[in-house]
């Protein structure tokens, strides 16, 4: 007489799910590899490029995407002879597929990274001024500590596409608006308004932000660069925030070029303090409006939600290397913040007498707002 054998516990549906739900989950697990291929196709930009990177034929890649579309019941890509484009459903699915690849990368890094030093290749993009004066200065200590990490730093004053241009990390001054990217805030840069003694010898020194409207102001060449916001310092006896529309005869997309123009006496500049720290200390530039400060310039470390290489590519940069670099940069930022806080108390402030050389700052009035560096919490890596 046949006997009924109990169903193994591992095969039984959980109490909180129906048999249909359990079957659907198993079915989707069979398509994880196809989801990784879909993410790679979007990264590479074409079936053929993805096929070369994955050591597969183009037809094999196309079939895997077709099977994934069939399993999900939606079209993911619009195919043409010239290019691929995402459908609305494909855009939503891609975000989750990218996260799956990232999770696989993280799992592998966790398994391989137990007790191992970070290693791999990091390709980093940063704005020219920030990269030259900040990232490049922080790199020697990082490379000495992690000799197994190879760094390529590319300095660009333009928008960068991390996936299309193969960057593992982008340092930029704005938070990403792309949902496929993740970011972590870095230390913001304090900004200062300053001018050369030669300029101040010819013009009245501004005592209030609104007086800047009568001056030649050096601006960056981006939208809204003519709007300068000012926040009163604690001892100014004011609480309002002022937005001043400035004008001038020189705009440029480089902090270094603005510093050079300010040193030449062309006009008044608004710059990150780190860009002009030496000039302020030497008196070749004088800080203006000591009772006011301008909003800090934020900085973000931005990268794809998945690693720049898929889990099965050996040449990819590791998440551990990215984390190590960001941790090093945060530590460097903290050290520089302490040095800058001490240095700004000695920076020359533009004197009351127009044309007089820079004099030491009046320490009874703070040269900065004294805010301490606060280490931001993890947001991406």
From TrEMBL:
GO terms for biological process: DNA-templated transcription. Coiled coil: none annotated. InterPro entries: LysR-type_TF_proteobact-type, LysR_HTH_N, LysR_subst-bd, WH-like_DNA-bd_sf, WH_DNA-bd_sf. Keywords: DNA-binding, Transcription, Transcription regulation. Pfam families: HTH_1, LysR_substrate. GO terms for molecular function: DNA-binding transcription factor activity; sequence-specific DNA binding. Residues 1-24, 350-369 are annotated as: Disordered. Residues 35-87 form the HTH lysR-type domain. Belongs to the LysR transcriptional regulatory family. This is LysR family transcriptional regulator. It comes from Rhodocyclus tenuis.
């Amino acid at each position: 007489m046949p006997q009924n054998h109990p169903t193994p516990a591992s095969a039984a549906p959980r109490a909180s799910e129906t048999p249909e739900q359990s079957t659907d989950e198993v079915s989707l697990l069979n398509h994880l590899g196809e989801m990784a291929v879909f993410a790679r196709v979007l990264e590479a930009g074409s079936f053929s490029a993805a096929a070369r990177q994955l050591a597969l034929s183009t037809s094999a890649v196309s079939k895997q995407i077709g099977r994934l579309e069939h399993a999900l019941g939606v079209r993911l890509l619009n195919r043409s002879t010239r290019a691929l484009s995402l459908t609305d459903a494909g855009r939503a699915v891609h975000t989750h597929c990218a996260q799956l690849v990232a999770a696989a990368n993280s799992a592998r890094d966790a398994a391989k990274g137990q007790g191992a030093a970070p290693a791999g290749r990091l390709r980093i993009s940063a704005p020219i001024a920030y990269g030259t004066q900040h990232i490049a200065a922080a790199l020697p200590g990082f490379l000495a500590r992690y000799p197994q990490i190879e760094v390529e730093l590319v300095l660009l004053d333009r928008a960068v596409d991390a996936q299309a241009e193969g960057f593992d990390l982008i340092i930029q001054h704005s938070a990403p608006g792309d949902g496929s990217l993740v970011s972590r805030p870095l230390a913001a840069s304090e900004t200062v308004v300053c001018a050369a003694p030669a300029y101040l010898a010819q013009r009245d020194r501004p005592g209030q932000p609104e007086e800047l409207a009568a001056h030649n102001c050096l601006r960056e060449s981006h939208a809204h660069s003519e709007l300068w916001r000012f926040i009163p310092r604690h001892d100014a006896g004011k609480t309002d925030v002022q937005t001043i529309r400035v004008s001038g005869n020189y705009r440029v997309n480089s902090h270094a070029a603005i510093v050079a123009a300010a040193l030449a006496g062309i006009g008044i500049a608004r710059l990150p303090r780190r860009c002009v720290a030496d000039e302020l200390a030497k008196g070749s530039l004088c800080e203006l409006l000591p009772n006011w400060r301008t909003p800090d310039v934020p900085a973000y470390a931005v990268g794809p939600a998945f690693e720049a290489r898929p889990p099965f590519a050996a040449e990819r940069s590791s998440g551990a290397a990215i984390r190590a670099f960001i941790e090093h940069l945060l530590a460097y930022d903290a050290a520089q913040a302490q040095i800058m806080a001490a240095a700004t108390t000695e920076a020359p402030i533009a004197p009351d007498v127009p044309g007089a050389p820079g004099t030491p700052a009046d320490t009874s009035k703070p040269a900065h707002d004294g805010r301490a560096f606060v280490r931001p919490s993890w947001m991406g890596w």
